Amino acid sequence: MIHWRQWGGLHRARVGGIAMVSAIMLSPVLFGQEISISAKQLAAPPQDIMSGRLRLPDPAFTGTWSEYGMLSTVIEAGKGSRDQGVCQIPLAGAADIVVLGKELSTWKINLIDGQGQRHDLLSAREAVLGDGGPLGSSLDALRVSLADLVGPQVTLDLTTNSQQTGRHAAVVLVDDDVPVGMYASLNHHLLHVGQKVQIDTQFYNTQNTNSQTVRTQDRQRLDLAIVESWADVWHANGHYERLDSVGESGMFSLDLRSAGDVTVMLSVRAIASDGRAFLRTTTHLIHVEEPNEKLSGFASMVVGSDGDLQILIGVDGSREKVLLAAELWSTSIAGEASPVCWAGGMTPRERGSHDQSIRRLRLDLAWLSGFDGQSTLSLKNIRIQDPDSLVPLDIQAEMTLDVSDAVWEVASRVDAQETPTREQLMGQPGKVRFAGHFSDHSSRAVGGHNLMLMHGYCSDGISFEQSDYSGQLQIFWDPGVNRTHDQFAIEIWNQGLSSKSYGLLGHSQGGTAALHLYTYYWSGVDWAQGERLVQALGSPFQGTALAGAIAALGEVFGIQCGTNFDMTYDGAALWLAGIPTWARQETYTSTSSFVDEWFSYDYCHIASDLLLSDPDDGVVESWSGHIDGDNNLGHFEGWCHIGGMVEPPECTDPSRNADFNASAAR
Amino acid sequence: MRKTALSLALAYLLSNSLLAETGIDCASPAVSIPDGMASGVLLDLAPVACREDCVVTDVTVSLVVEHPWIGDLVVTLQHLDSGTSIALLDRPGSEFLGFPGPYGCGGDDIDVTLLKDALTSAHEICSNTEVPVLAGQAQPIESLEVFDGLSAASAWRLTVADDSMYDEGLLSSAWIEISWASDCNGNGSADDVDIATGISVDMDSNGIPDECDSAECPADFDGNGHVDVADFSAFLVAFGSQNVDFDLDGSGVVDIGDFSILLVAFGLSCS
Fold this sequence. Notes:
The complex is a heterodimer.
Chain A lengths: L3 H5 L27 E3 L3 E3 L1 H5 L13 E3 L2 E9 L6 E7 L2 E9 L6 E5 L5 E3 L7 E4 L8 E10 L3 E7 L6 E11 L3 E7 L9 E10 L15 E2 L2 E10 L5 E5 L6 E5 L4 E12 L5 E12 L4 E11 L5 E9 L3 E11 L5 E12 L1 E2 L5 E7 L12 E10 L6 E9 L1 E2 L1 H7 L10 H5 L6 E3 L13 E6 L18 E3 L9 H12 L4 E7 L1 H12 L13 E4 L7 H13 L11 H8 L4 H4 L2 E7 L37 E7 L16 H10 L3
Parallel strand pairs in A: 21-29, 31-32, 31-33, 33-34, 34-35, 35-36
Antiparallel strand pairs in A: 1-30, 2-24, 3-13, 4-12, 5-11, 6-10, 6-12, 7-8, 7-11, 9-10, 13-14, 14-15, 14-18, 16-17, 16-19, 19-20, 21-22, 22-26, 23-24, 23-27, 25-26, 27-28
Helix pairs in contact in A: 5-6
Chain B lengths: L1 H6 L12 E3 L8 E3 L3 E9 L8 E13 L6 E7 L4 E7 L19 E5 L19 E5 L17 E7 L6 E14 L8 H6 L13 H6 L13 H10 L17 H10 L6
Parallel strand pairs in B: 7-8
Antiparallel strand pairs in B: 1-10, 2-10, 3-9, 4-7, 4-10, 5-6, 5-9
């Protein structure tokens, strides 16, 4: 493991005794200045290439699985219409049923089984009524566990209070005991307007496939009879359509019509091998980009005026900022190819010497130490991605590299390094800049070396229990907002301008955004000293099924906090493909879940539990809260993601808070 | 502590033709720089021991500072007679907006010599791996040339302040080197420069512009209008000392060079 701060040998004599930064003083330094954010010039050694860690993911392995069915109904009450909605559900045996809607306690919710027997769910002995929690705090959630239901189909009869008029919606989640799960994945990630994307569904046996194997080739595919399949699609331009699958294959072909977020609720009704009918539903959030940024096919390597190696890549397009990445390979006279390094980073658009549009990757000369001009250099797996959605805008498998003589001249004079230096991996500050921005959310303090405590997506602003922390703190404050990881990271940077240096402790998306900031931008985090630069609790590094579900529920109930592609399984995988090992090594992750008793059915949240694989904290599955190459601080039972769940919120765990506090860099 | 530092100050003169250098060095113990106080540490340098007509030709400042966040520091140098003051360092690193950020360079320690013709500005140097972060030679943020031509026979003041809280440090050493030369005609330019550039003529090759030779009797120490035995007697008493009144060639020492000038002038009457 690399400890940067040992290399620097910084030895601060900081002033102690200041418990917390709470000043509301505005720093005069900050007023009236155009502050620009400086991007890092990322590089990574060949190991990161060979491990595949920095390659775009195979969409076949970033799909979504489901062991539940989801149905929605809309009731137009009053005005002479019936105030009743009916859902037909293929179901027999035991099941957990969750109904989501508004003011459910005033409704009549009855289930009629295959023999006509009526069950009043609201008054059922096992009924639990709570709020929608992470699926929508303005919603009610009713959960009922039923056994020995007679099928093959049941009817859910939903009747609103006669006093209520207007449009009412309800969503029903059904988790039966048929041991079949459905896995649905996209066939590519070039999600561009005008393209088609295919969603492929497969079935697997839930008794021998768990959340760790469902996304791998170990997944055992079941061939079952599909009775009916359909997909509800809400396009970014507001247009809705219902798609049928191609034949009875469970495969859907979707036209990407407009840029933005597309929500897909994909349902398949099938017959299990024991003859029972069942329903499986996956929800997908797909981000579609305009295909207006293209690799133009030329690349050259020169020595810049500042002495850096620069790879100039032709890119036709006008976006202010894109993520550009490529692998640098060498080929010997004998024809043996070997990776030199990976290079990437946020890049601005520039004009080249012949007025062509280019983007520039910068590399430390040390990467070419030992090369004598006898080898040839080339680029592989070149890609440009949108900085927010991380959707690839263009990719190219290989490009020849026109290398100037000056490159070989300077390379021959560079000393080889045993291990890459910090400058090799991150570049130097100030060379690549983008316009910053100010928000007035931050309580600005003057200076200080702080631990920044950060809440997550669409939070009420409350996260970590501040009384558990004794050192200097800065509280990130950006409640009720939905941001991409990049936007979130820039907001952290923005608020961090009130600290001289800071370490990061992020809850939920705050953790992923913290890693994004440390990876892509220079900030006060790079001045922080202490053991842990980035700490994350309950962060969906590999995505969460709730991102798609929240999008689908938003279509049914109306937009709440908004959709976030970065937190989908697909989006998270695209994002992780840009996070080098050196950044992961500075990241410390912790996850939580309910106490799993052998004798009971346990969960964190009555509704989100159906969408997630155990163990989970009600929002994030344990496997998703950690990543390869990080420092895994462990998984802790007895805590859930936020308040209002079965266990107390994980941010109030005094033991972990003490550890976070003691080990944080500041 | 501040007075201690001053009491340890050493001043000396280096004899070198008409040019001379002087410096102040506070070496030990190190002086604590008050954290977050613009007033800072003041170091006063006594007037340079040169004739009233000497002018500054160059200034160099060397600093050794132990500080965990050099972007806190503001260092100024003031020529007290004229009040001319420049910032040598002003929260270095602040120009790199976005990084290090508005608090200047967060690197550790300074061991730098600030001079006019360095290749890099002290404000363009910042690293979070190099210690000391500001090392070698660098240009100050404001040019030292503003002091050229000012009277060297002035006291100087160096101020080292920490303008931002949360990090504190020590001033280990400060060295100010002032090069000066005679400016007998008071035109703000050193005599040797005047002669070399043809502004002045030096027919007798005594290193003094002729207009100065004719304007005064440099060896008429008692001011009676004649260079006579009384002046010679007074010169013998001063011989070997650093008495600037008898240091006719401005070498810093009353020596044989001054005696030669006295011999040339002996017996002259001055009008």
